[in-house]
Amino acid sequence: MTLPGVLAEIAEAAGAEAALTLAQARGGQRVRIPGHYVPGNWLEELLGETAARAIIARFAVGSGGGRAGHTEVMMPIAGTGAYGQVRRTTAKAFARAVETGAGVREAARQAGVTERTGWRMRRRMKGGTDDAQGNLF
């Protein structure tokens, strides 16, 4: 799984599990990463001391006074939020309809998407290409 921006940095510092846990807990929100480790901070409570220390060290910003300042970041949802759930649910509904013999138009109607989106979904189900169309590149 490829993680977006900030989550990729967090995964690099503290591991993918920590990044996904953080996305699940705070995705879609602006969060303040402390500038220095303090026992009992919200990152430690969520991820444990080792991961919290690694993330804080990664995002710490020098303040010139010898003490690091906090960093505010917008935490991506990374497929854990409502949009990702809706997409997965829609894709499953479309696939079920096709598997039971529905055509693209009917499967799209049952899944609650446009016919055009239904054709895109069907193409992905077949492996991403339309054999009748050919490929220019």
Any key phrases for this structure?
single chain; 137 residues; mainly alpha; 2 domains; two-stranded antiparallel sheet; 7 helices; 4 strands; rod-shaped
* Low-confidence parts: none
Q: Give the overall shape, derived from the CA principal axes.
A: rod-shaped
Total number of strands: 4
Structural class: mainly alpha
In sequence order, what are the helices and strands, one letter per element?
A: HHEHHEEEHHH
What does the largest sheet look like? Answer: 2 strands, antiparallel
Q: How many separate helices?
A: 7
Q: How large a portion of the residues is in β-strands, by DSSP E?
A: 5-15%
The spatial strand order of the largest sheet comes to 1-4
Q: Compute the CA-based radius of gyration.
A: 22 Å
User: How many domains in all?
Assistant: 2
Share of residues in helices: 40-55%
The first-to-last residue Cα distance is 27 Å
Mean pLDDT figure: 84
